[in-house]
Amino acid sequence: MFYGLASFTDQFSFSFLNWNCYLDCAKPDPEVNGDTEKNFAELLSEELKLRESQALENQRRADMALLEAKKVASQYQKEADKCNSGMETCEQAREKAELALVAQKKVTSLWELRARQKGWKEGAAKSNTQSQGKVQTS
Description:
By secondary structure, the protein is an all-alpha fold. It is 93% helix and 0% strand.
């Protein structure tokens, strides 16, 4: 039994020492707490600065992309304006050509009417033209 008691007391004193060490380690150390809080505050400050710089960089990229989009939109608008102007010019030219064609048809009708009044016949003109071509080639 004596052997068991000695062993028990050795284990007890070892456990007690470990417990004391644990209690000592668990005690708040003002010096360590101050350093830890300071380090934590510095880490938070660095993290905030990093996030701020990332946000600023993202904003800069977004601003550049927006500016580029505005430039491209402006170029497309200029091209659209040119196209619209060209279409208007083309439409005006078509209208003028249409009016000129109507006027030319009127003049042609007048000449044809005068020719018919003087005895011109459409079939006779073709045969007369063909016979003149044969005479000239002969």
